Amino acid sequence: MSNRKIVIIGAGPAGLTAGYELKKRNKDFIIFEKEKEIGGIAKTVKYKNFRFDIGGHRFFSKSEIVNKIWKEILPADDWLQRHRLSRIYYDNCFFDYPLKIDNVVKNLGLKRSLAIILSFINSKLFPIRDEKSFEDWIVNRFGWRLYKTFFKSYTEKLWGIPCEQIRADWAAQRIRGLSFTSAVKDALLRQIGFKNSEVIKTLITSFVYPKYGPGMMWQAMSGKILKGTNKKIIKRKTKVIKIIFNKKTAKVKRVIIKNEQGKERQVKTAALFSSMPIDELILLINPIPSKKVIKAAKDLMYRDFIQVALVFKMKKSFPDNWIYIHDPQVNILRVQNFKNWSPYLVPSKKYTCLGVEYTCNIGDEIWSLSDRRLKNLAKEELIKTRLVSKNKTVLGGKVARMKKAYPIYNSEYKKSVKIIKNFLKKIKNLYPIGRSGMFKYNNMDHSMLTAILSVRNFCEKKSYNVWDINTEEKYHEEKQEY
After folding, report:
1. Residues 6+ apart with CB under 8 A from 295
2. CB 3.0 to 4.6 Å from 404: which of 54, 141, 302, 370, for a disulfide?
3. Which domains does the chain have, with CATH numbers?
4. DSSP-assigned letter for residue 78
């Protein structure tokens, strides 16, 4: 095996973390990244002297392993402690999030607020017994009226399918631990001065953030991976186009790659860590897997993402880090105010850069719009939501598109993932890692942890069940560990 390399597919958080861990162990490895830039969905995009995030990435984790790595990579001076402020835009009003009683009553009125409380009581008296869908999960914890008010339109905009077709798993993973009861109790305790209740835990109120955006982390990590070597072990604009699997040894023995010029070559493989979309991985394996496995891969669905960054000449905009747009009259999902993430992301205090987010499917109306039309649409919808006034001129902007950004937890996904997982487990030296690599709605820290534990499984003959990461009982945003 001395002439075989460990191959890593993808230079996002999972792939780079795998490389970083292998470098610590003096292993011979190579990373193939199909794009020009590293960082995947967590990269930082530049437009002139402005920087912006793809979706907004907070750095917080309950994993001390991940926290330790973040601190190893970036010195203390490169971190900013940020206060979280995010609100919901609904019915021409802005709602504090997490909920505050006085704010909800003020915006909805006493009559609608009482109706929400009665609806919640009804859901407790007559719960849905068999929770299958996102709708079932939310109604049981918040009641039908609050579900219709704050959850339905936003969630359907995010995923592009009705809430009753989305599995309850997604709600359990992303908003686990929160309920109407906990939100009201927390709001009441805050009103009377108990800000750090040990009883009611709510969303994190602060997080850390690299001063020049998350891309700063991955650039620094790649620098540490390359340090002390003349070898180009991170190959950009290079695709893995075939994975050759030996059935007798139950191992991947080589991969075939294609570089930017279209030249192909083979790389003998000691182990393969893959963060590429798991459906694409299956279709590259040779000999070809069974029809059942191929079908399972093709049945998996993703949601694609567009970030439109617009620059305005204005010192101040809204105070939030981001705002959730729950208005079904506009296509916007969220709006980021990057100056509030870090003042270093804009070159001068007199400018503001807003990130307007859209989810879509490749080929649909939003995805097919030109960059110019997307910028115009983003400005029009910012005006509709009163986040920008009509007299403000867009000084410039940039559109970033990200394919397969979100794995869709529809009614069939669990069955498909199980079939694929059972197939991949038979390949002894293949390790799926990361969000796309495992078809799991992971945050950065979860993606990194899948890589860390997979490297330990390979190098130290451990038996961590990486598939169990991000299935813990407590919601992963309940508290801040920094």
Report:
1. none
2. 302
3. 5-38+61-77+212-297+410-468 (3.50.50.60), 99-195 (no CATH), 302-407 (3.90.660.10)
4. G
What is the DSSP-derived secondary structure letter of residue 344?
G
Give this prediction's pTM.
0.91
Residue 419 is which amino acid? I
CA dihedral 287, 291, 296, 297 (to 10 degrees): 40
* C-alpha–C-alpha distance, residues 459 and 18, integer Å: 11
| pLDDT value at residue 1 | 42
| Cα-based angle 18, 399, 297 (whole degrees, multiple of 5) | 50
Tell me the average confidence (pLDDT) per consecutive run of 10 residues in the chain, 482 residues long. 84 98 96 96 96 91 94 97 91 83 86 91 93 92 89 91 90 64 57 47 75 97 92 94 96 97 96 98 97 98 97 93 93 96 96 97 96 97 94 94 94 95 97 97 94 97 92 44 28
| Three-state DSSP state, 193 | coil
End-to-end Cα spacing for the chain: 42
- DSSP letter for 468, please: G
Buried b (16+ CB within 10 A) or exposed e, 42-79: bbbbbbeebbbbbbbbbbbbbbeebbebbeebbeeebb
Residue 402 main-chain phi, psi, to 5 deg: -130, 115
Q: Report residue 257 as tokens.
A: 């790659």
Q: Nearest-CA neighbor of 327 among 92, 30, 71, 108? A: 92
Q: How far apart are CA 267 and CA 260, in angstroms?
A: 16
pLDDT of residue 187: 55
